[in-house]
């Protein structure tokens, strides 16, 4: 039987403190949902409301067409299983005894386990890697072993939906991946619906198909990992500057913390405009971004590696169609950004007929009295594929007063920018 859960305008308060405010979403059979957000955003409270551990202050939760309060506890336990934080036992049951508790919704009035119950318990212990611990007391287990036994109890419940609150807590890296791979396998093979509260944004991105980011009691963003895990969202919600890089195996966004927003400081408060292409500006782009400089870039071809980096960093930039020469319109837009910048850096791009206008644009910085830093390593002659016109332009830039830099250019440019007196 398929599963359908509708959360409509859910609100919940602890006394005068509103923890959830107007939460609305729909879950179906086979969904794999991640609930993320900073501490205190209501993630665990949301899960407890769904599992009827807490009673909503307002709104409603509808499961398979029936409002949550109308469900008998035993029947609900056949539709939803909750793995909460620290959800263990006050008694030193054996692992097998505790896992068998997951079968209570199916027991008759005398409470005896039938063959199918024993089979479900054994299967759950094998799936979670705790079968060898079945005769051990819960109190004798490590935190990670106990967590696996708790998950086994939920799997023994054999529900179409699993609600998990920080299930990777206390687990080392290997078991974290093993657990999430198991959930992913069950989700794909048996269409188990998984709703996962998780702090680790990279694990959430890797394994969850949909994410909901909670912030200030509401859903701040919802959608695919690519839609939710953006630099702007994380900066606003977590107050942390990050880089968003694609995972090398599956391309899922991976979050790389840079610094708390309040710590990003530099002496140069104006925007720095970068002229690059083909990956020539990426190292400097990342380095200046990490150091807190405000950046823009152009003209960059869509799909180019510098374009991809600028896009991930959320930079203002001028974009050109792929495999096309720089058009007069894009050139004018580039000149406008240069005119608005406090300084300009020309990266060591490969010079061809299609991007000569990028080199010519650097002259606009000199005309506007802007500091122009030209990275000439390797020298322009070895990068000139425009019949010598590129090398000639570089010579004219030097004669016009551009600052030429070679070698370890990143630190030198940072130092020179920081030494500029703001206008």
* Helix-and-strand structural type: alpha/beta
Q: How would you sum up the global shape?
A: elongated
CATH architecture of the largest domain: 3-Layer(aba) Sandwich
Radius of gyration based on Cα positions: 29 Å
Percent of residues in beta strands? 15-25%
Remind me, CATH topology of the largest domain? Answer: Rossmann fold
Helix count, DSSP H or I runs of 4 or more residues = 15
Average pLDDT taken over every residue: 88
- The name of the CATH superfamily of the largest domain reads P-loop containing nucleotide triphosphate hydrolases
For the largest beta-sheet, the strand count, sense and barrel status come to: 6 strands, mixed
CATH class of the largest domain: Alpha Beta
Helix proportion of residues, in percent?
Answer: 25-40%
Got a strand count? 18
**CA-CA gap between termini:** 69 Å
Q: Which residues form runs of ≥5 with pLDDT under 50? A: none
Structurally, how many domains make up the residues? 2
Going across the biggest sheet, name each strand in turn: 6-7-8-3-9-10
